[in-house]
Specification:
Elements: E1 6-13, H1 19-29, H2 47-52, E2 59-67, E3 70-78, H3 86-93, E4 98-104, H4 111-122, E5 126-132, H5 141-152, E6 160-161, H6 170-180, E7 193-202, E8 206-215, E9 223-226, E10 232-234, E11 237-241, E12 245-247, E13 256-260, E14 274-277, E15 296-302, H7 308-320, E16 326-332, E17 336-343, H8 346-360, E18 364-366, E19 370-371, E20 373-377, E21 382-385, E22 397-412, H9 416-425, E23 429-435, E24 440-448, H10 449-452, H11 456-463, E25 469-479, E26 482-489, E27 492-493, E28 499-502, H12 506-520, E29 528-534, E30 537-544, H13 560-580, H14 587-591
Parallel strand pairs: 1-3, 1-4, 4-5, 5-6
Antiparallel strand pairs: 2-3, 7-8, 7-14, 8-13, 9-10, 9-14, 11-12, 11-13, 15-17, 15-18, 15-19, 16-17, 20-21, 20-22, 22-24, 22-25, 23-24, 26-27, 26-28, 26-29, 29-30
Length: 598
């Protein structure tokens, strides 16, 4: 295929604005899939994606399209829309020259629309703005066009009005893709350079690398070298996604496809690495990616009927298809051997947990998630910790820094007061307010990540009747007056329940947490004291009463000393049991840390 007739593009949008539906419609209109083969969410292969109606992994597909007697090759990359999978979007963009920016005609410009549009501009992509769902009764295409013009500086007359569901305007959009989007720039370098933008693991064929060729040609039987890891492999198979895998004889400049080279471990493949030939290597690799920055950490321990080795093999299997997820062994006195896992955000964590239990049929006990903190020690050394238990002694800490993010919230104007109140409670500072239309406002805050990463989004949706959307990006770390609250259950500190909070709300947070633990931990045969402590100082205490058997029920009449003697014996038994008894802590006790509501 002539390089001028190739178009590499991605579809970007806020979550649920119709990316996957548009991808489906393009597959149908170009004849890539027949009406008989067609099903909704063609490119979402995971069960969890189909059930939740969201895209988690980026996926690629090649379509053929003819116009004015010319044949074009359209390489589409469908990307996720949720803030947690921002990394997947940035990876996909480096393999493209253009982007279709989809905006819902009923919802308008949302927080993730802006974030993805700015990302596309940074990558130097040609943007085609599209207003989708124009056939819905609540559609306001003209108002949304004005919002796009106001926030992104794209002329509203340049927007394409379509309905991906019914096919309105798709022909015009396909023409725009081939006429307005640039083809790949010819690279005069004769050496082979192909960028790995994604990969997944197949049980039978090993690692399947998704590649975009920038120069040279990939052929079966070539001996290739990964420039980052310096490992060499022999290409056994290559082809394109149509959307099923279809073998081809070669992949030339500008083309997107897959490479199979008997690679047994996904850890041998680095996303963003450059493939070149062993016999005639390129001088320098293509610019890669920043490593994904994991911001939320949580411990996973084997639950009932699950072995540690089962959990480890399940994590290894999951990490094969998700480069942004990490895990390493962890040991807790209360819960035994488990793993400390890193995630991009809370939705990412939820999806990993669900896949873990569903795909591997295992049970896990999960601790409350924490964010990463930075510590300046008295020795002038900067270290990062992702768990309260890793904090050094207070005497060795010069400064404790928390992650700060720029938080963008887009809301109807009547929700401003309630959102300001919520933001104030979470220590957020308002930077600016910008009206993007007569009825909608964008508010920008400077916020501590720890305060917004758990239930902030749920609270925001609640107070705005579901209309507000948010997006955030990390700015850096900032010193704050933070303390570690330790939770003692039956006088034993449980590391997995400790948390780092701001000193101003440490006491109230400790007290609320103990009340929740009192409800979550079942009663035992002995009384269980629950304590919250900062350093050696107890700041709150609750007790879980013991089960009591009426041992005097069978004593009728006689002297009162008979009853006293039996009660004293029971008391001593309880005391002995308290010394040797262990407290069973259920999963909901660990998750009660997250609940900051009253």
């Amino acid at each position: 295929m002539n390089i001028e007739n190739i178009r590499n593009f991605c579809i970007i949008a806020h979550i649920d604005h119709g990316k996957s539906t548009l991808a489906d419609r393009l597959l149908l209109m170009t004849g890539t899939v027949s009406q008989r083969e067609f099903k909704e969410q063609m490119l979402d292969s995971m069960d969890i994606e189909r059930e939740r109606g969201i895209t988690v992994k980026a996926s690629a597909v090649t379509m053929n399209y003819s116009r004015d007697g010319k044949d074009y090759m359209l390489n589409l990359i469908d990307t996720p829309g949720h803030v947690d999978f921002h990394y997947e979007v940035s990876r996909s963009m480096t393999a493209c020259e253009g982007a279709i920016l989809v905006v819902d005609a009923t919802q308008g410009v949302e927080a993730q629309t802006l974030a993805n549009a700015y990302l596309a501009v940074d990558c130097g992509l040609e943007i085609i703005p599209v207003i989708n769902k124009i056939d819905l009764p609540a559609a306001q295409a003209d108002v949304v066009g004005e919002e796009i013009e106001h926030t992104l500086g794209i002329n509203k007359n340049e927007c394409f009005h379509i309905s991906a569901k019914s096919g309105i305007g798709i022909d015009e959009l396909l023409d725009a893709i081939v006429t307005l989007m640039p083809g790949p720039k010819p690279d005069n370098d004769p050496h082979l350079k192909a960028l790995i933008f994604d990969s997944h693991f197949d049980d039978y064929r090993g690692v399947i690398c998704y590649v975009r060729v920038f120069s040279g040609t990939l052929l079966p039987g070539q001996k290739i070298k990964m420039m980052g890891s310096a490992r060499t492999y022999l290409i056994s198979d290559l082809g394109k996604f149509t959307p099923s895998m279809k073998r081809t004889d070669s992949l030339g400049p500008g083309e997107v496809g897959y490479v199979i080279a008997s690679i047994r471990n996904l850890s041998d493949v680095t996303i963003g690495d450059t493939i070149t030939l062993v016999s005639d290597p390129a001088e320098k690799p293509l610019p890669g990616y920043k490593k994904p920055q994991q911001m939320v950490f949580s411990d996973f321990y084997p639950g009932n009927n699950t072995e540690y080795t089962q959990l480890r093999s399940a994590f290894e299997k999951l990490s094969l298809n998700d480069a942004s997820f990490s895990f390493f062994p962890q040991n807790s006195p209360a819960l035994g051997f488990g793993f400390r896992c890193g995630f991009l955000g809370m939705l990412h964590m939820e999806i990993i947990q669900e896949r873990l239990e569903r795909e591997n049929d295992i049970e896990v006990v999960q601790t409350a998630p924490t964010v990463t903190y930075e510590i300046l020690t008295t020795d002038n050394e900067v270290i990062r910790v992702d768990s309260p238990s890793q904090l050094p002694e207070p005497t060795k800490i010069e400064e404790l820094r928390e992650p700060i993010v720029k938080l963008e919230i887009i809301t109807p104007k009547d929700g401003i007061g309630a959102i300001m109140q919520l933001a104030e409670q979470r220590r957020c500072v308002l930077l600016k307010t910008d009206y993007i239309s007569v009825t909608r406002v964008m508010m920008v805050f400077r916020a501590p990540l720890a305060e917004i990463v758990y239930d902030f989004y749920d609270q925001l949706k609640g107070i705005s009747k579901g209309y507000a959307t948010m997006d955030y990006e990390l700015l850096g770390f900032e010193a704050a007056d933070l303390v570690r609250i330790e939770i003692l259950i039956n006088k034993d500190a449980v590391d997995a329940l400790s948390l780092i909070v701001h000193r101003s709300n440490a006491e109230s947070r400790g007290r609320k947490l103990l009340l929740k633990l009192r409800k979550a931990i079942p009663r035992h045969q002995f009384e269980i004291p629950l304590q919250a402590a900062i350093g050696g100082k107890i700041i709150a205490r609750e007790s879980i009463k013991a089960f009591r058997k009426d041992v005097t029920a069978k004593l009728y009449g006689g002297d009162v000393t008979r009853k006293m003697k039996v009660l004293k014996k029971q008391k001593e038994g309880k005391k002995r049991m308290k010394n040797i008894g262990s407290v069973q802590i259920p999963q909901k006790a660990f998750m009660s840390i997250l609940d900051t509501s009253e």
